[in-house]
Specification:
The protein is of the alpha+beta class. It has helices spanning about 1-25, 35-40, 55-65, 80-105, 110-135, 140-150, 160-175, 180-185, 195-200, 225, 245-270, 275-300, 305-315, 315-320, 335-345, 355-360, 365-370, 385-390, 425-450, 460-480, 485-500, and strands spanning about 45-50, 50-55, 190-195, 210-215, 220, 325-335, 370-375, 395-405, 405-415, 455. It has four domains: about 1-105 and about 460-500, no CATH class; about 190-270, no CATH class; about 305-320 and about 420-450; about 325-415, Chitinase A, domain 3. α1 packs antiparallel against α21, α5 crosses α11 and α6 (about 140-150) crosses α7 (about 160-175). It starts with a helix and ends with a helix.
Amino acid sequence: MRYQYFSKFVSFLLITLFLVACGNEEPADKSADETSQQLNAEGVVAKVDDELITFNELNLMLNSSAMVGLSIPALGTPDRNQVIITLLDKMISANLLYLDAKKNGADRLTKYVDDMKKFEDAVLVTMYRSNVMIGDIPVSEEEVAAYYKTNINPETEFTDDVKLSIEAKIRKQRFAEQKNSLRDRLRAGTDIKIFEDVVSSSADGERSDTDTVVTISDKRINWSDVKVLMSGADHHATLAEFYVDNDEERMQRLEEYIDNTLMVDKARAAGMDKDPEFFKRTAEYRKTHLINIYRSNLVAKWKPSEDELKTAFVDNMDKISVPETRKVQMVVVKTKKEAESIKSEIDSGKITMFQAAQQYSIDPNAKRTLGDMGWVSQGTGFKELDDFTFNLEPEVVSGPVESPAGWHLVKVLDVNDALYENFDDPQVRQLTLRLYMQKKFSDYVIDLRKNHFEVAVFEDELNRNFQSEADYIAELTIKAKEQDSVTKQRLQDLQKWITPAAE
């Protein structure tokens, strides 16, 4: 287990170093085919219409999978290359769904527009709080030095990055301490009026969604804007008893809402919604959320009829159902007479089934396995033997029965019943529906790829990156073997660092 975690950590480190190295490469010289050169310089390995997929994106996606416990093949290996190709196929499919969603106007759906507004507002609040509210808090050199001396490992070098990190921590702490004064500064010059009687729990039985709870200058905030914010454990419920019953907590939530509203307005007025950082933070969500909404709409549209679902179950029983399995022990001999004689000895208690298998069975593995065949599924062996075995009572020595291998004595040690064979079972219906939808999605994406959008995979660029990874690891391996190698020393230090935590 210790090695597994250490291996993943080292793999993560090597990947990061590799990506940094790639990022520091000089851009390719643009000449004859400028577009092709540009794509190569950016590491583009596939293109779905105008959507580009880079090798670094694939690597980062694979690298992040370690955080949810997935196994990651070592950098520069054929296994890793195969996983990258699988991820590339998934990203192409995702981009096809994204483009189809935009083509069909899913990005204009009210739910998507509202969700994006909430997400963008949350990003603007974070940016404004970090860049303006917290960023304006002064931190002296003496405070940074004191924090470093008190809280940082003395072996840590005091670099510019460490200094900036300490300054950010101090500002964040001071922001929490000075929150009230910062709120006054945020609200300075703004006319705010809160209608506490509307917010109060005493109004829950009478209030309407259009009742105003607060005005911010000329902006009116109604109950419909904040009622989800005021909800308790079940925020989907609309009944009054599911709202927070503590009026003080309601006011605290409303004050936070007012602060956030002001920060969003000020951030937009300052042009933060045009900042590259804003686009970077919202781009991935904008794309993935649209895909998710569009996928949900497709699922609703593709909901099968009862007959269609039954047909899908019948057509895919081999993928849905789990056949009965039996743990079997056997003695195999050449003649029926010999088998009957051995069975007589077992039935009389003179020998056990294990001893019979060890002493008499012609199965070459019998002396090692004592006749234990493990778990077998119905339909996987000789038909005569299969039919016989799956009609036996457990713990009874039966036979002899003939097969092309000889004459068998059979004992069923244990039975695992068949699963998911009844279409009326809710779990079976769910498995069938999932398989049905997977097939629909697969067919739909294939059609998009063939008939609606242009997909190009740049195999030369993909292979170039594969080779570059392999060369990079080979170079590190050589350096690690050199005397006084820094790479080797770092790996040894990492091993020392991680060992105590794993024990």
